Amino acid sequence: MMKHYILLAGAAVVAAAVLPAFAADIGGGLSAEQTIAARQAGYDMSAVTFGGMMKATKDGAAAKDQGFQAHALAKWAHVVPTMFPASTASGQTKARPEIWSNNAGFTKAAANYAAAVDKLASLSEANDTPGFTAQLGEVKKACDACHQDFRQR
Ligand code: HEC
User: Which of 60, 136, 137, 147 is the most exposed place for a label (fewest CB within 10 A)?
Assistant: First the structure.
């Protein structure tokens, strides 16, 4: 056991000595390519999360049993605007240039989406199943509205 602690302490000393050399890589943020890949993964997982809530609701699940999903989508919705730095306007992306040329419009679409998902999460906490079901439709509208203006087909 003791040997493990010594090894760990040794590893920590080595890490402390070596890490500053890599600080630019570790703390320097994602590249444009990595940011695009991360947001596309987030969007794919949004579709999975959203689709799962639609299916569960259709199958008669109570709103309160979908709190984790609704809160997960809300967390994502709130960080969406941070996933579009100007450096990510080109590359393997379907983002339209209007995200940057009409950034106020994009920010508004993202805020409407976040508000719709926040409301979904509240309705889940209140276990208001009819309200939750209706709100899923509003969330879908917010997805579609943003895609309409800001995503390439
Ligand atoms: C505020 C704008 C906005 C909202 C809201 C939004 N999207 Fe998107 N979505 C985009 C943009 C822009 C892209 C293109 C991203 C890229 O290719 O870099 C995208 C891409 C996607 C993709 C494709 C990702 C890939 O792998 O290329 C899926 C799936 C998706 N969105 C699903 C959703 C769902 C489901 C919702 C709602 C629950 C949603 N989006 C809400 C803007 C939005």
Answer: 60
- Index of the ligand 1 atom closest to the CA of residue 81: 1
Atom of ligand 1 nearest to the CA of 94: 17
pLDDT tens-digit readout, 106-121: 999 999 999 999 999 9
Chain centroid, CA 105 distance in Å: 19
d(CA 113, CA 25): 33
Residues lining ligand 1, CB < 6 A? 36, 39-40, 43-44, 46-47, 50, 80, 93-95, 109-110, 113, 139, 142-143, 146-147, 150-151
